Amino acid sequence: MLLSTAALYLSFRKVPFTDLATYLTTINYFWILLAVFIALMSFVIRTLRWRFILGTAHTVSFWQAFHPLMIGFMLNCILPCRIGELARPAILQRKDNIPFSTGLATVAAERLFDIILLIMLSIAVFTFVHIDPALDISFGKYHLNRETLLTIGTGLFKLGAALIAGVIIISFPVSRRVVKRLIMALPAMFFFAGSDFKNRMQKGICTPLTGFLENFVSGFALIKNPKKVGICIVLSTIIWSLAALSYYVMALGCPGVQLSYFEITAVMIIICLFIALPSVPGYWGLWEAGGIFALSLFGIPAKEGLGFTLTNHVIQIVPVIIAGLVSAMIMGVNVWQISSYNEYEKHK
Known about the structure:
Elements: H1 2-12, H2 17-25, H3 29-54, H4 62-78, H5 84-96, H6 100-128, E1 136-139, E2 142-145, H7 146-171, H8 173-184, H9 195-219, H10 226-252, H11 261-274, H12 286-296, H13 302-331, H14 338-347
Antiparallel strand pairs: 1-2
């Protein structure tokens, strides 16, 4: 909370609180409610996409996928290190007996499609939106500027390429057999150790690791089917389009933020790139600084920019937190014990 408070102060210091409070009273909250509905609809499509990806290995109902997904996103909003990504497969393992590694692979596949779409949208932003090289917003140890955006975009591209290469390597039986042989050969590297140590290493580490690899590959099974990949790309496009639409609809109710759909999509992408930087849970402060930077590209003053960004931040994460808590109650899941339960299962 101290980190979040400090981060928010860095975003708020140039806008008097009274001016911000006055601006917030001028917002038409009818558009806010509509924006919340559209944002939640994007999670419905996310559930359909995840269920489709899961379907290559295990069949689950809509609600069996929806509740873990909302719990995972809720945890991402309130806990560090994106722990919600691990909570989802842990819940599937506990509730539906789906191997943790398979569930984890499907979450990774989801993120891969998101990265691909984010890279494509980032290219469009860098191509059509002029970013003044002199524009710089200081945020703690970060400088939010054109150079930072390009660095994050390049890193994202490299990450996407590495993930795609890794998926290709483990998806084909021939290359997977090579990887498994390398894993099983690890004990031989400890030539100075006794046979007892090598046997225990093979049984306790190498064999479980190859099993994890097989289960993980099953979560990426749809990669071999171009039609299914195409469906996931279409669903991913709908997800990001709805997310941008929620930003656009909210802007309709915010005085001084009259932007086109493409411009507001550019704002969303720039915020997404900036919050990829290490930050406190919920991205507080960094989200606001990124939003002010993005809106300034289109001539939006700091007061209106902060009012829009702060309100938008709240409506993007608070409904997710509420929905995640409701899903946890419906499933009877103690979200704080998910990771410890998973560790217990692995060592039974």
